[in-house]
């Protein structure tokens, strides 16, 4: 129970010092998150393929031919929105899994804290009556890749370094950049049309 004494000093134990129960919970969340990612990719594999092929078309139209195609870009935007929405649903499920497991961790540490006080394993005066709420060794965070779901479209170089040369970047990344830049431009134009006086005064 040395970790409890360290808790009073505001220290968090390294992973190797965590109890097997805590390590097991963390491993289960990692497996659950991986299963959700696999389910999402499997359910949307056709959409993934279409987005990749349409990305080539968008890049060719906008960068090689220099001929904007708003209708094609709008259709592409719908596909990307479907992809992101599907990912958001699975991300919410992954976050729920993380939150539920952190609740189990909080219950575990509360029980361990009170047990140490009751059994005098640690002098009562060395531990506060209740576990500090900000102290939760082994606390789990959502896998950050869930916040970069567009990267999952780049199946052939997901873990590799992206080339610095814009032309050498995957077509998906180039097409998404075109889509996002057009969306930003459209939003600015829309704001100007609706509130011309405000824009000019600002």
How are the SSEs ordered, and which strands pair?
Blueprint (H helix, E strand, L loop, with lengths): L1 H7 L11 H24 L1 H20 L5 H49 L52 H24 L1 H6 L1
Helix pairs in contact: 2-4, 3-4, 3-5
Note the main attributes of this structure.
202 residues; mainly alpha; disordered C terminus
Description:
The chain has helices spanning 2-8, 20-43, 45-64, 70-118, 171-194, 196-201. The chain is mostly helical. Residues 187-192 and 198-202 have low confidence and may be disordered. Helix 3 (45-64) packs across helix 5. Helix content is 64%, strand content 0%. The chain contains six helices and no strands. The longest helix has 49 residues, at 70-118.
Q: What's the short story on this structure?
A:
With 202 residues, the chain is an all-alpha fold. It has 6 helices and no strands. The radius of gyration is 25 Å and the shape is elongated.
- Provide the gyration radius in Å: 25 Å
Helix content range: 55-70%
Q: Write down the oligomeric state.
A: single chain
Q: What structural class do the secondary elements suggest?
A: mainly alpha
- Specify the overall morphology: elongated
Number of strands: 0
State mean pLDDT (0 to 100 scale): 80
Low-confidence regions: 187-192, 198-202
First-last Cα distance = 60 Å
β-sheet strand percentage:
under 5%
Output the number of helix runs: 6
> What series of H and E elements makes up the topology?
HHHHHH
Biggest pleated-sheet summary? none
């Amino acid at each position: 129970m040395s970790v409890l004494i360290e808790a009073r000093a505001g220290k968090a134990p390294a992973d190797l010092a965590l109890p097997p129960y805590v390590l097991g919970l963390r491993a289960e969340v990692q497996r659950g998150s991986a299963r959700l990612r696999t389910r999402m990719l499997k359910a949307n594999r056709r959409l993934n393929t279409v987005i990749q092929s349409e990305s080539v078309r968008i890049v060719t139209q906008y960068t090689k031919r220099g001929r904007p195609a708003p209708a094609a870009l709008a259709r592409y935007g719908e596909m990307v929105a479907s992809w992101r929405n599907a990912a958001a649903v699975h991300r919410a499920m992954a976050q729920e899994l993380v939150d539920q497991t952190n609740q189990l961790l909080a219950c575990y540490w509360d029980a361990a804290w009170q047990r140490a006080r009751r059994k005098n394993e640690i002098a009562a005066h060395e531990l506060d009556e209740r576990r500090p709420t900000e102290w939760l060794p082994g606390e789990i965070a959502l896998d950050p890749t869930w916040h970069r779901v567009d990267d999952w479209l780049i199946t052939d170089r997901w873990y590799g370094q992206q080339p610095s040369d814009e032309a050498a970047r995957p077509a998906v990344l180039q097409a998404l950049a075109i889509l996002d830049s057009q969306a930003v431009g459209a939003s600015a134009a829309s704001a100007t049309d609706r509130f011309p006086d405000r824009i000019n005064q600002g």
